[in-house]
Amino acid sequence: MRWFRPLVTLLLPALLLLPTHGTAQKRGAEAPWREGGWTGAFATLRPTLPGKAGQLEAAGPIPAEARIRLYRVEDPDTFLKKVLLDRGNAVAEGARGAQDPLDVLREAVLWGGRRAFVTVHRTASQGLRDAAKQTDRLTSARTSPGKVREGSALPLEGQPGITFVTEIVPRIQEDLTGKRGQEDDESGDDGFLSRVELPAQAAGLYLVEVIRGSDAAYVPWLVTDLALLSEQDGGRIRLQAVDARDGAPRAGVTGQMLEGAKALALAFDGAGKAESPAAPGVRRVVLVRSGASFAILASEGQSAASVRQRLYAFTERPLYRPGQEVFVKAILRRVEDGENRVAGGVQALPFTVLDPEDTKVAEGQAKLLNAETGTYAAQFNLPGAGRLGLYRVVFQGPQGPGQAEFKVEQFVKPAFEVKVTTGKTKVGLGDALSFHANARYFYGAAVRGAKADWFLYRVVPPKVRWIWDDEDSGPAPELMESGQLDLDDEGQADLPVFKAESDGLWRMVVKVADASGQRNSGQAQVRAAAGDLVLMIAADRQVALPGKPFQVTARALDLDGKEVPGVAIALRAARIVAQKDNAYWWSRPNALKPGETVASAPGPQATLTIPEGGAFLLVAEAKDAKGRPVTAQRQITVAAEGTPLPAVPDLRAAADKPEYQPGDTARVLVQLPRPRLTLHWALEHEALGQRQTRLVQGTTALVDIPVTAAMQPNVWAVFEIVAEGRRQMVEVPLRVPKRDRRLQVAVTTDKERYQPGQPMKVSVEVKDASGRPAPADLSVGVVDEAIYALSQELHPDPVRFFHPTRRHGVLRSGSTDWSFHDLLRRQRPVWSLKQTKRGEFKADDDDKVRQNFKDTAHWAPFVAAGRDGRASVDLVLPDNLTAWRATATAVTADTKVGVGRSSKPAAKPLQVALALPRTLSVGEEARAIALVRNLSGQPIQGKVRLEVQNGRVTGSPEGAFSLPDQGEFRFALPLFSDKTGPLTVTARVEGGGLKDAERQRVTVLDQLVPASMSGSVVLDGGAQTFTVPVPPGAKGEASLVLTPVGNLEHLAAPSLPYLIGYPYGCVEQTLSSFVPNLLVADLVKQGAMPDLDWKKLTDLDRNIRNGVFKVYGYQQPNGGWGWYAPGDFGLDANPHTTGYAIQSFATMKRLGYTVDEGVYRRGRQAAMSLFQQAARQADQASGQGGQGGRGRSADPQADAAFLLLSLAQTGEPVAGLVDSAADKVLKGAWSGNHVLAMTALAAAQVRHPKAAALAERLEQRAVLKGGLARWEGRREDWWSYASGDVVPTVMALKALCLAKPQSPLIRQGETFLASEYRGYGWYSTWSTSQIVELLPYLMKTRKLDWGPLAIQAAVQGGPAFEFKERPEARRWNAREPRAGGHLMAEPKPVTVTASGRGLLVWTYAYQVPGSAAGVTKAEASSALRLSVTRHLWKLRTPQETGNARQGWIRQPWTGTLKAGDEAWMEVQFRTDRDADYVMLEVPIPGGLNPTVKLEGFVLEGKSFTEEGASDTWMKPRVEVHSDKVTFLFHRTWSWNTHTVRILLRAGMAGTYRLRPAKLSLMSNEGQWVTSDGLDLKVQDGGAR
């Protein structure tokens, strides 16, 4: 069950925190011990006031027999310094090398923690330390057995410097708090909490020892009335010593700050204050003392808080194709005191371009444009065949990097856009849902008379969110209605009207196809609510004074946010009635209800006065058009200094306004949990502020803060108290926004409408926020509007980038929060980062052929706007029929910034637009479509003509038309090409004295289909030379991949630690642990393998003894074995474990070990009984043509064969049984390679005459590929006899070693098994142990060679390789050459000379033309068990079936579609092993348009989300190329069938070839497989 591995990875932090039981015995101080025993998951007590009882908490139950002892540390000052200063030494890291009696205590202090655990007479392992650092919940703990270390247990009793205080019998209180009332708790913890009260003590340091039997846990406990507050920025730390009871400043304090091994003295003044430099990123502990009280505070040190640089970069457009040129501009500022300054002296900025896999694809230097404004420009070319997706260009500034993002895709620009509008974006329940569709070309013409499919969805928000869901994840939209209609001559249509039957989001999607077959969509959505009116209420302050008036304003809005006049609104202030229905009522706004009215007035605007202090609700009340009540409310606090307010459990604070301007006074109301507390507060942003302290007599305080310009754009008012030993803090943000930083940028052009190729003048006018002209540095880009229809701009708002809110750069902490675990805690930084009117046309170069099509018409990175704020650029438009968007970005020397945009269309009065297939292969037929449009304002008669180069059309190349104004004529001819290269089509139109011509190109390819051949060379120490000839018909690039495979035996020995270290529990795993050890030990005794350092592996005798007795204990009453102990999973014996057990006992007896004869005899009897039962079931299954069923084995034939093999190895007289089984296998009654192999092995064991026939059949069944031989099992059952291909191959090799030792398949099968090595062993303990058990059999055929891999190979005229290990798997974007790989620009013969020992597999990969090759599936001749299948269905749409809820319905695939039809493709694949970096390439011919974002698609009632293109655990990255869709999987699993889905739409008529889908392992280029190819015909005349 491979799914278990990732599950364990997810659960490991939780599993590490579960209690475990051990067998530790009480030992002396010097007695050896092994890490791993019971662990008490106790929380470290927080500092406690003297005279107050402590609370010892534990996750889970505390054993009733536990005892608690309390010890006092006599010299805590010395002890704490020793602990804190030595924490980096080996003794604290867990090596336990020293014999200091305080080692265990130091361990408890260092690695214990409030939200962690305390160790048990042991040293914390790395896994436990990691778990402690990562968790923030009090959960229980489990130790990991992964690392075993020796050490000494050191009991406390009698240790010097530690005094016994008392022993108590704990009175345990248990609390099942858990998730009650916490639906959003995702911890997975059931919340079981136990508490024990500890008796009050005087000030000092104590150690709590929890004893259960011979186990113990330690918890440190600090009793003190001293507290310490700290605040730290990037350079200083400020400390305040206070009384832990009320927070009053504490005098007479001494202390030290410990950094590593250094102790720095701290000077505290009479008010308990101290300040010291503090470098960022340094872990430090502050230890202070006042009398007998201590306070400890840990801090890692805040990183340098101030932002020193801002580097803003942007590209001229958001989207590019591979190979295109990218233009980018950067603006650099250094930051001083929060203000942006031009960085002088920087002449260039280095940059690097990274693809979606963070692989560098380009680099260079951005040159300085303007030193006064600090701007830079660069340009670079994208690779022509790189990855698709999101790219980054990263600039390196003097103080760090900055970046711009852009997309690289293979896209077809849309010619038109579809806009869906609605009268109201919000409606009430039962109100009408009305939508309007409008489809227009970007240059303004209507898409006349087109078919429009519409779909009405209801979007339901997710009710439950899993912790790994994406932010936007949720259920798929529910398709409610669908239909089809025709657009009118203006390209518009009113859609059917529906009622909003339920609340939620209603989405209308409209898909329109024009005459060329291009399809685009648009959508609009309406939110339905339970009313048609919304009230908004606001006050001019959040905190009001008692008896003082304040202004309240209410507004009535419709559901679109428009104000509704004339609505009667009543305003009132009311007391609060709280619905405390659960512990979290205060977090729900609807839990606060208005009670008694204390002030009222008619609205919508009024002045209210509340005479008394307290918390109140402001309420606005009205009725909507249907008489339904509508209310709005907000909370307001009324208080003056000392005003009694409702009691609060924690410190709270609120400002009276949401934002301020310089000159205002901010009034902050602070509520304290009890009177007579000292309030500490400061104003902070990125550095320390001035700390202020005041004693508050009551429970409320008003703090007045004058607002200055230095507080722009924001600061934090931070308030702290310490009460009854507990520190509390609250932060109040004060916003003081800057309002003069955005420039007004107006972009205009010299014309409202253009023709392609005409000159354009773009004028820019820049003004500041007050409307005055502003000189500025401008960049001007003119980009095809169709680009923005595919992707919006990706760069952030420059105003927000350069003038963000300041982050809070002060780190605060307190000693009352201290847990000893804080020594390890690292502070991790938190990063906050058109419709156009028709105009008059003028003839302009009518004879010109339009062929200069660009996405960017013009880019000027620097244009200077003078003092009048004006500038202009001149350009000549390309030949696109579109609209052009001009974008101007302005920046001034004082970093005022702004962006302006303007869009203008470009078209001709009589124009022709060509549509060609996006891709075309040799031998395919497509269409050349010319769309003629008359935009002249009058009727036109004329002709259109097509001219083709490097191809041909059938039929007359000329057509006549008669078009009214705004009319359209479609002229289409079949298009062919019989040779590769650029195919050029020119369309010319003439009529009414007007002309136009357009030329387009498509590259014709003879798409290559992969093929390969392979072989192998066995090397026995000498040199061999072989030549690989050029395969027939090979074209294009080719490669030779050499893969070395070492001997099987040198992989088996390193697998023994895996077999030993596995956390065994079942019978099979236990046997797999010690039986291979027996065999290896026997080989060592025979001198067949080198001596092993058994100390590194295990105590062999103990391992065997413990394992045997464990298996004895697992024997069932009937003599057989199940998977676990009797009763765990029933009393039925299992054929697999029973057979394996008696095989193991037989091996032990053969090697001279003692076996319990009674257990052995009963086991053989049970195996015989199970064999007879399995054989009967196997015969019945064979006769019935099936297997399984109630009470039956899933594979009875394999059960019978395995039991027969096991009995044969025990020496039982089974010759007759073998004879019968051999007949059944040879006649095919018992099927399967694994059954054949086990039966052949049984026959060979007993020297049966039919063993030779079975061995011959084995040789016939072998699968030979690339010099490797394997016997295929069932990949679904990797844990059983079949075990994929590994165990059947092992069984077959054992049989051949006995029955036909001279078979060449033995060496080839060995090599296959070696190639399957996983780095630690093979797929499971079962398969690994079987391979180890194969070694004695191999000794019968050859001498074992335990040497490491050592093979040399040299390619004549090419590279040479020396292999000392197998080449590692590679990432798919790896640029370094693969070890053993030789790339060739064209196929050619290759001669290789190889030497060494082992087997060298070679694979010659090449390609053949798709037009010449068949369409059948293929695979690399050295490919392992890879498979890929493609399934296709024609779809009936909801418009055709009339059943929107069912959506699209699949119909059988016939290979023929009509233009506009839709089809569904599913590609399924499997790999024989877990694989990294798998690529699935699905070719898509030019006549089909693929869709992989499936949101809104409903297949036979199943709705899909946007990522519905695959159902794998780890979603692939999907790239849509012009001729294929590529799915890139970082990881696939062998037990799973992976499925990808593509929705297809037939767009262009013709005959095409669906080339085979290809699955390849990118970490190993020699492994790939393809599906079948198919032919496709798309016919004209589709209804859609």
Describe this protein's structure.
Residues 1-40, 87-154, 177-191, 463-473, 820-844, 1094-1098 and 1185-1191 have low confidence and may be disordered. The protein is an alpha+beta fold and 1584 residues long. The protein folds into eight domains: 4-223, no CATH class; 228-304, Immunoglobulin-like (Sandwich), CATH 2.60.40.10; 309-411 and 739-805 and 835-906, Immunoglobulin-like; 414-640, Immunoglobulin-like; 910-1005, Immunoglobulin-like; 1008-1046 and 1350-1404, Jelly Rolls (Sandwich); 1049-1338, Glycosyltransferase, CATH 1.50.10; 1410-1579, Sandwich (Immunoglobulin-like).
Topology of this protein?
Blueprint: H1 4-15, E1 32-34, E2 54-59, E3 67-73, H2 76-85, H3 90-93, H4 103-111, H5 126-134, E4 150-152, E5 162-168, E6 172-176, E7 192-198, E8 204-212, E9 215-223, E10 226-232, E11 236-243, E12 254-259, E13 262-266, E14 273-277, E15 284-290, E16 293-299, E17 309-315, E18 319-320, E19 325-336, E20 339-342, E21 348-354, E22 360-370, E23 375-381, E24 389-397, E25 400-408, E26 416-422, E27 426-428, E28 432-433, E29 435-441, E30 451-459, E31 478-486, E32 492-494, E33 498-499, E34 504-513, E35 519-529, E36 534-539, E37 543-544, E38 549-557, E39 570-578, E40 592-602, E41 605-609, E42 614-623, E43 629-638, E44 652-655, E45 665-671, E46 677-684, E47 692-696, E48 700-706, E49 714-723, E50 726-735, E51 744-749, E52 759-767, E53 776-784, H6 785-790, H7 798-802, E54 811-814, E55 849-850, E56 856-865, E57 870-876, E58 882-891, E59 897-906, E60 910-915, E61 920-921, E62 925-934, E63 940-949, E64 952-953, E65 958-963, E66 968-976, E67 981-991, E68 994-1005, E69 1008-1028, E70 1035-1045, H8 1049-1052, H9 1056-1061, H10 1067-1085, ...
Parallel strand pairs: 18-25, 27-35, 37-43, 55-68, 61-68, 79-91
Antiparallel strand pairs: 1-4, 2-7, 3-5, 3-8, 6-7, 8-9, 10-11, 10-54, 11-14, 12-13, 12-15, 15-16, 17-19, 19-20, 19-23, 21-22, 21-24, 22-23, 24-25, 26-29, 28-33, 29-32, 30-31, 30-34, 34-35, 36-38, 38-41, 39-40, 39-42, 42-43, 44-45, 45-48, 46-47, 46-49, 49-50, 51-52, 52-57, 53-56, 53-58, 58-59, ...
Helix pairs in contact: 10-12, 10-13, 10-21, 13-14, 13-15, 14-15, 15-17, 16-17, 17-18, 17-19, 18-19, 19-20, 19-21
